[in-house]
Amino acid sequence: MLRYLTAARRFYSHVPATFYHPTIYAVSTSLGQKSAVAVVRITGTHSEHIFQQLTGSRKKPIARRASLRTLYDEVSGRKNVLDSSIVVYFAGPKSFTGEDMLELHLHGGKAVVKSVLKAIERLGNKKAGQEIRFALPGEFSQRAFQNGRMDLTELEGVGDLIDAETETQRRCAITSMTGLHKMIFERWRSIIVSNIAQLTAIIDFGDDAEINDIDHILQSCARETETLKEEVERFIHKIDRSSILQNGIKVALLGSPNAGKSSLLNRITSDETSIVSDIPGTTRDTIDVPLDIGGFKVVLCDTAGIRSASKDKIEIEGMKRARAKAAQSDLAILVVDATARSCVTPELSELVISELSEKEVITVINKTDAVDIETVAEVRQKLKNQFGDLAIIEEVSCLDYRGIDDLVDRLSRFFKKLSDLDADPIAASKRVQEILKKDVLYGINEFLATIDLGDVVMASENLASAAEGIGKITGESVGIEEVLGVVFSRFCVGK
Ligand SMILES: Nc1nc2c(ncn2[C@@H]2O[C@H](COP(=O)(O)OP(=O)(O)OP(=O)(O)O)[C@@H](O)[C@H]2O)c(=O)[nH]1
């Protein structure tokens, strides 16, 4: 009897919310590509059954212990060896998904992986209640969320970490994945909830209270919420800056035709990305090149040369696009030809002074190999006269590479400054950003406006909607089905 009770307790205490969901499996490493090792993950109630069938063992697997096993497939009573694999079993709830999980570290040949997947599929028996199927995109993470292993911000962090291409993106993702955001949001929520509780007390028992006490409570709620508002605003501002890093810092290359913009792009990317020719007006449209400079994701954009005298419709359109790119950029590089008599045309000078005055502009004197030192000094002086403090000047030659490393260093320093890396950058999905602005901050602002008018009921409702916003972010509140679709659709199979 005691044995029965112990077994029953062990069974029921670990029942995950997804206990009756099908057991799912997927290749977690790149599917369809040859590799040394391929990892197949299985999660769900029938993980143990799959372990026993594949390994031919009748014993319960020992959790969290890697063992080398021969995997078999049984077809028409005949046992075939599929692979010799490292097998790790995780007993729920101490697993990524909160369910029982099995990991098979196979030899990464396509045929091996295919045969093991087929064998797992064959173990399913819907009529006998053993539903086993291939996982949908993001389904492992969805299970983790459903079983309370992670909240949505942590899961989005996992997604970002896997997608991270640069060091900065990785650092952004780590903050959400390690639950730092979750802690911040929980603290905000508890501040709001404690204020709602105080307002509710006034609404319910206000008639019996001293008017001074009520005033005191209202003032303290307003003060606390005002401080919270500042914190939320700072957080949103930080996300805005960090999202520049996530999406790529936009750098526009501007200059007169033939100044060497395409050559400079090719030198920075160390590639022949853009067409270089001595015919002015070769680049007629904008060309975006994503690249990693000093650990930052950068989108470098080559543009059409800007000059006044042109009747060519395509060239005019190209120049329009170049101006638009310059306006959208986080940094503009103005390429100046040291051999040209008028190194900065009036159009370019006007563009820099009037439209780019709020932006960082680096002026690059190019073709220094083709002129003497005095000429370079003259060009430098001209630029100083023209742009004054706006002129950050670098000297390069795209022909013999001189000055290119210094320019790249200068760019890295600028990106560091832009990203304010004293503090860790933070990333938040579009979904989180929208809720923060439209629900949380909006609710707080409305609260502050209504409390000023003395409308306690309305004020409390506004705070409640801010708290609900935070719940939507972490996935603990209303609109959950709606948010799940948005979050998990970004994930790939096996995640
Ligand atoms: N001597 C010398 N020639 C260069 C240098 N950089 C570019 N050139 C030459 O200048 C010409 C124009 O270079 P591009 O890079 O095509 O110039 P661009 O500014 O992109 O020109 P457009 O597409 O017309 O706007 C080519 O013949 C290049 O070989 C340099 O540093 N030194």
Automatic annotation (TrEMBL):
Signal peptide: none annotated. It is found in: Mitochondrion. GO terms for biological process: tRNA methylation; tRNA wobble uridine modification. Belongs to the TRAFAC class TrmE-Era-EngA-EngB-Septin-like GTPase superfamily. TrmE GTPase family. Gene3D superfamilies: P-loop containing nucleotide triphosphate hydrolases, Probable tRNA modification gtpase trme, domain 1, tRNA modification GTPase MnmE domain 2. Keywords: GTP-binding, Nucleotide-binding, tRNA processing. Pfam families: MMR_HSR1 (PF01926), MnmE_helical (PF12631), TrmE_N (PF10396). GO terms for molecular function: GTP binding; GTPase activity. This is LAME_0G14356g1_1. PANTHER family: TRNA MODIFICATION GTPASE GTPBP3, TRNA MODIFICATION GTPASE GTPBP3, MITOCHONDRIAL. It comes from Lachancea meyersii CBS 8951. InterPro entries: G_TrmE (IPR031168), GTP-bd (IPR006073), GTP-bd_TrmE_N (IPR018948), GTPase_MnmE (IPR004520), MnmE_dom2 (IPR027368), MnmE_helical (IPR025867), P-loop_NTPase (IPR027417), Small_GTP-bd (IPR005225). One of its GO terms (cellular component) is mitochondrion.
